[in-house]
């Protein structure tokens, strides 16, 4: 039996943290964060942490560090701050925690995006990696469309497999 089949066979709920990076969103207006919560819960996982932080290296790093120290989560899902504007510093801030990068995540996300939005997909700096303690971090753009695409096509189909491999 292959690894993925074993992961699907051993159904379990992975604890997840959500981090929205935005200077303008609030808990009431964070549609991407709400969509993440809905998709995660519908997939049978649990939300252990949800926070909105400003587009600031200090705020982003502080939030990730806090999650890694205080929470026992399998993954941190980050939305926002992954474009090319001056304020978009999420990939640089989060990747400092990576022990190992998962380059296929960003590559496939941009390829899937290209089929839907064309050349603008190259502006996405979606990244993923695994931290020193084994937690997976996925960074997605801030749009609800990007969150839906990234979670439904990439993160959620592989999450149990990733967590199973992590625990070996």
Characterise this structure:
By secondary structure, this protein is α/β, with parallel strands linked by helices. It has a single domain (13-166), classed as MoaB/Mog-like domain (Molybdenum Cofactor Biosythetic Enzyme, Chain A). It is built from six helices and six strands; from the N terminus they run αβαβαβαβαββα. The chain has helices at 3-9, 31-42, 57-70, 90-95, 103-117, 144-166; strands at residues 15-21, 46-53, 75-79, 98-101, 127-131, 136-140. Strands 2-1-3-6-5-4 form a six-stranded mixed sheet, sandwiched between helices. α1 (3-9) crosses α6 (144-166) and α2 (31-42) crosses α6. The protein is globular and about 35 Å long. The mean pLDDT is 92.
Question: Topology, pairings included?
Answer:
Elements: H1 3-9, E1 15-21, H2 31-42, E2 46-53, H3 57-70, E3 75-79, H4 90-95, E4 98-101, H5 103-117, E5 127-131, E6 136-140, H6 144-166
Parallel strand pairs: 1-2, 1-3, 3-6
Antiparallel strand pairs: 4-5, 5-6
Brief sketch in words of this structure:
The chain has helices at residues 3-9, 31-42, 57-70, 90-95, 103-117, 144-166, and strands at residues 15-21, 46-53, 75-79, 98-101, 127-131, 136-140. Helix 2 links the parallel strand 1 (15-21) and strand 2 (46-53).
CATH architecture descriptor text: 3-Layer(aba) Sandwich
- Spatial separation of the terminal alpha carbons: 16 Å
Query: What is the CATH level 1 assignment?
Result: Alpha Beta
Roughly what percent helix? Answer: 40-55%
The helix tally amounts to: 6
Give the strand line-up of the largest sheet. 2-1-3-6-5-4
**CATH fold annotation:** Molybdenum Cofactor Biosythetic Enzyme, Chain A
Strand count:
6
Q: Catalogue the unreliable spans.
A: none
Quickly count the domains: 1
The helix/strand order is HEHEHEHEHEEH
Task: Identify the overall geometry.
Answer: globular
Measured on Cα atoms, how large is the radius of gyration?
15 Å
- The CATH superfamily is known as MoaB/Mog-like domain
Major sheet attributes: 6 strands, mixed
């Amino acid at each position: 039996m292959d690894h993925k089949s074993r992961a699907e066979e051993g159904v379990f709920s992975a604890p997840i943290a959500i981090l929205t990076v935005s200077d303008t969103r609030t808990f009431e207006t964070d549609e991407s964060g709400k969509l993440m919560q809905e998709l995660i819960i519908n997939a049978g996982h649990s939300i252990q942490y949800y926070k909105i932080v400003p587009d600031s290296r200090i705020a982003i790093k502080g939030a990730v560090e806090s999650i890694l120290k205080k929470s026992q989560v399998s993954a941190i899902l980050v939305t926002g701050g992954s474009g090319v504007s001056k304020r978009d510093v999420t990939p640089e801030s989060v990747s400092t925690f990576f022990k190992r990068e998962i380059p296929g995540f960003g590559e496939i996300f941009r390829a899937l995006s290209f089929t839907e939005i064309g050349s603008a997909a190259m502006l996405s700096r979606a990244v993923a990696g695994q931290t020193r303690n084994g937690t997976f971090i996925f960074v997605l753009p801030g749009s609800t469309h990007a969150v839906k695409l990234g979670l439904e096509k990439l993160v959620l189909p592989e999450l149990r497999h990733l967590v199973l491999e992590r625990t070996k």
